[in-house]
Amino acid sequence: MGVRGAWDYPGMAEQIEDTSDPRLWKRDGWIAKVIKNEDDDGWAVEMSRHGESEPALTTPWTMGRDKKNPKPLDPPSFHTLVKTAREVLMRHEQQLRAKLHRSVSVTVDDRAVKVDLDIVPDEDDPHAIMVAVDERSGEELRSARVAPTVKLNATSAARFVRTGEA
Fold first, then answer.
1. 15: closest CA among 32, 34, 29?
2. How far apart are CA 149 and CA 132, in angstroms?
3. Which residues does 13 contact at the CB level (< 8 Å), separation at least 6?
4. Alpha carbon distance 92, 97 (integer Å)
5. Is-contact 101 150, C-beta < 8 A?
6. Torsion over CA: 16, 52, 47, 64 (sign)
7. What is the pTM of this model?
8. For residues 119 and 104, what is the distance between their CA atoms, to the nearest angstrom?
9. Which of 32, 35, 116, 153 could form a disulfide with 25, with the two C-beta atoms 3.0–4.6 Å apart?
10. What phi and psi values does residue 49 have, to the nearest 5 degrees?
11. pLDDT in tens, 18-54
């Protein structure tokens, strides 16, 4: 067993020791743990990034030949689980970005303008940043801090470009 620090997300320099037990694998910053399935008599596997409190993926796991114990983890299964967990995290991040970012293009005074609204979900000070950019030149025309509840549509975007009010 060697020590690795091959994290697949930036800022994590911490190292953990590789483990390859039948029910617990730690490798490349990921932890796979075979657990008893709470919903039935079967087994499940939890995939977590080291240091994260919640698993990125929990999925059913295959029974062993004795039909009582789980099948041991092996390299191909572990790599498939890591790939699946990464995809799940990527989809969650994409959904969060889509929820927190809106964009609309409008024409104001014969000028094509893109207006972006980026919500900042701060617990103490939730807000959004609205920015209008000339689509041809890339010049920022206007930027303002606005309420996170602002509804961005063609009408509100044009009003923001003209008056600065969201």
1. 29
2. 18
3. 5, 7
4. 9
5. no
6. positive
7. 0.62
8. 15
9. 32
10. -80, 140
11. 888 889 999 989 999 999 987 777 899 999 999 999 9
